[in-house]
Design brief:
single chain, alpha/beta, Rossmann fold, 6-phosphogluconate dehydrogenase C-terminal fold, 2 domains, 8-stranded mixed β-sheet, 10 helices, 49% helix, elongated
């Protein structure tokens, strides 16, 4: 039980945004019987209808005021939408309500949460999972299973609020990890945002050739498919991500471009010893990684 008098099994959770992340969270909370009730808020009528039909939520509204009934309010919209919503959440949140988010960048969101009124208990969050498909129809209850669930507390975040957020993450099968917001943004720029940028750039590069010879796609096999998968994702969500983490992402892209230029020079020079060394080093590093799926 938190210092404000509710335990997770007795809590009402309001999820604002019922796309892939919010919809999957609702389905996971329902499947695991984590909380007392689940409220869904979205302006997408089809998503509300589908969420109700699948039993993911108990009540639905296009109006944020529905969240006033919740003990935990989770903002699961694109980052800049979250930033727009935060000032409106404080006035309608009940005394002691916990406000979380699922945004993929954290520094700007945590800074915005600092302005929430004292009766609200804020904490930032970012589950490290997702798919290239989006919308409620793509949601699935197992999306969070084994995923790292980053939590970025504010200076004002109480120990009990952090503990409840950690228990929510564990309840849906995720693994909580507490990080500073700025450190989080630096790291995901390399491991999450740079891969998206590379996938999009690869699609653009091959697309240029396809204008001259569409047969190029007939030669695209699993390597191209897997490498470009992220490019098919939600452009609005990724645009918000890139813009709100632009310093870190632009640095990561330039660093990668430097290494690509080095690679191009080695290939052009036919420098087989150094090229072999580079490729073998990358292979060894990749084989050493263990991903939980």
């Amino acid at each position: 039980m938190t210092e404000d008098g509710f335990a997770l099994p007795d809590a009402t959770v309001a999820i604002v945004g019922l796309g892939l992340m919010g919809g999957s969270l609702a389905l996971a909370l329902r499947a695991k019987n984590v909380c007392r009730s689940i409220l869904g808020v979205t302006r997408n009528p089809a998503a509300l209808e589908s969420a109700l039909a699948r039993g993911a939520i108990d009540a639905a509204s296009a109006d944020l005021s529905l969240a006033s009934e919740a003990d935990i309010i989770i903002l699961a919209t694109p980052v800049r939408t979250i930033l727009d919503q935060i000032p409106h959440v404080g006035p309608i949140a009940r005394q002691g309500a916990i406000v979380m988010d699922l945004g993929s960048t954290k520094r700007a969101i945590v800074q915005a949460m600092e302005a929430l009124p004292p009766h609200v208990k804020p904490i930032g969050a970012h589950p490290m999972c997702g798919k290239e498909t989006f919308g409620f129809d793509a949601a699935e209850p197992g999306l969070y299973r084994n995923a790292t669930f980053v939590l970025t507390p504010l200076a004002r975040t109480s120990a009990s609020t952090l503990a409840l957020a950690e228990s929510l993450a564990r309840a849906i099968g995720a693994r909580p990890l507490v990080l500073d917001a700025a450190r989080h943004d630096q790291m995901v720029a390399l491991t999450s945002h740079l891969p998206f940028a590379l996938a999009s750039t690869l699609m653009t590069t091959v697309g240029e050739m396809a204008h001259a010879d569409a047969s190029v796609y007939r030669l695209a096999a699993s390597g191209f498919r897997d490498t470009t998968r992220l490019a098919a994702g939600d452009a609005t969500m990724m645009l918000d991500t890139l813009i709100t983490n632009r310093e870190n992402v632009s640095h990561a892209v330039r660093l990668c471009a430097h290494h690509l230029n080095e690679l191009a020079d080695l290939i052009a020079a036919g420098n087989e010893p150094e090229l072999r060394s580079l490729l073998q080093s990358a292979a060894v590093q990749r084989r050493a990684l263990k991903f939980e799926i």
